[in-house]
Design goal:
Layout (H helix, E strand, L loop, with lengths): L5 E4 L5 E3 L7 E4 L2 E8 L3 E9 L3 E9 L17 H14 L3 E5 L5 E14 L2 E13 L42 E7 L12 E12 L7 E4 L5 E5 L4 E3 L1
Antiparallel strand pairs: 1-2, 1-7, 3-6, 4-5, 6-9, 7-8, 8-9, 10-11, 10-14, 11-12, 12-13
């Protein structure tokens, strides 16, 4: 039978195995979801990206690491206090480490967000520990150097005649644009299911379907869904 070990690696790349394999470990894998109401359709859901995965481990650390027969670790630390100190130091560093469960595909970069240990049930022979971990995602920023332009000698030019100012082009409509709508709402971007007519209504664009008869889906300013409208019925402000 293969060995199932729970290994923690701290911010200094030091790795330990929990002395006793936990009876139960919780892994939470959640996804963002946005629920909204659509005219003549009802409630709909838009799936988002995955949330940070969370892990909760409840385990025990015997105070005497020599005698208990239920120790599962292949390699033990010298004392129970070293396990407690390892997690405390890792948490105080505020840096990422890693959790690995042997003989499984589970291998995740994590940070410690909670750790507690105690004696329970009048039993002082072992520490009852609770470790809370959250997935670590690396965010990398790049520094861009801006080069100063080389100054060149410029000969003076005769003053040019000023051209009459051109009218400003209309603002482009994009997702998140605030617009004024004057036109009929539809249930889909193909122009189906005509509904109410908007007149000088201030709305926000939350979906764009280019090439459709009604390419813009608009909402109220606070996010309430209204419907799809023609491009000619929308003006960005």
């Amino acid at each position: 039978m293969s060995h199932l070990g729970f290994y923690l690696t701290d911010n200094k790349n030091k790795t330990i195995e929990l002395p006793v394999a936990p009876e139960e470990v919780g892994f939470a894998f959640d996804q963002d979801a946005n629920f909204s109401s659509v005219i003549n359709l009802g409630e709909v859901m838009q799936m988002g990206l995955s949330k940070l995965r969370q892990i909760e481990i409840n385990f025990i650390v015997p105070r005497n690491l020599k005698t208990p027969s239920y120790i599962t670790a292949q390699k033990k630390l010298k004392s129970a206090y070293e396990y407690i100190k390892f997690v405390n130091d890792w948490q105080r560093s505020r840096k990422s480490g890693r959790i690995v469960v042997s003989d499984t595909p589970f291998n995740l970069a994590v940070e410690v967000i909670g750790f507690e240990y105690k004696f329970a049930n009048a039993n002082d022979t072992e520490y009852i520990c609770k470790l809370s971990l959250v997935e670590y995602r690396h965010i990398e920023s790049k520094k861009i150097a801006i080069r100063k332009p080389i100054k060149k000698a410029v000969r003076p030019k005769p003053p040019a005649q000023k051209a009459p100012p051109r009218p400003a082009p209309p603002k482009a409509v994009a997702v998140g644009s605030t617009v004024v709508v004057n036109g009929q709402l539809h249930i889909d971007s193909y122009g189906g299911g005509p509904g109410q007519t908007e007149r000088n209504a201030t709305r926000k664009v939350n979906i764009i379907a280019n090439g459709r008869a009604c390419p813009y889906h608009v909402t109220t300013i606070d996010g309430g869904w209204r419907g799809w409208v023609r491009a000619s019925d929308v003006r960005a402000i």
